[in-house]
Amino acid sequence: MTAKELISQSILPVQTSDLGIQVLDMMQANHVSHLPIVNHEQLLGVISEDDILIHNTEDPIGTYRLSYLRPFCLDNDHIFEVMARLGKLELTVIPVIDAEEKYLGVITVEDLMKYLAVHFSFTEPGGIVVIETSRENFSLSEIARIAESEEVTILSSFVNSVPDSFRLFITLKLNKQNIQAFKASLHRFGYDVYASFSEAEYSDDLKERYDSLMAYLNV
Length: 219
Hints:
The protein is of the alpha+beta class. Helix content is 35%, strand content 25%. Strand 4 (93-97) and strand 5 (103-108) form a beta hairpin.
């Protein structure tokens, strides 16, 4: 499964000529807190609700002082790489471009979670952790003992090897949404947590952003 197969058909990019309030409306309608900025099929960056709320929402976003964070994945990137980048950057969407850097669309956290639920039996609530390690250091039994010490159950796991490399990515589906203690224990035992995702954390974050937006607009 590659990134191009998960591109959303419903979420449109914004342009530098769009007003901040229009972009906020689009975010609310699509239940996301980030959107790509695209002009002439070229990805300029990603704008967040926070970016808009510190500026005048009646001004075009092209007038904003933005860092123009430009995260993206390529259309042929494996779904594991997409998951890792979304989790690591804490984005609600990630743009997809081709080898010529033409903008193709976005992948949302929601669509990614639906895919994982269908294909990897991730229907139970709980967090996801992606561990990066070398082949010689990989020990699923040790990882299971670490999980047990934190009263976490590993519901499912799968291993993805990196071609022409000794690196492995181990993706764990856990039975708990609060996975901070487990991640800290992994670090103590020398495991590199490449990315993590907790649906509850994202939901709480989106609710906080929505509440901030409503307070700002005095609705």
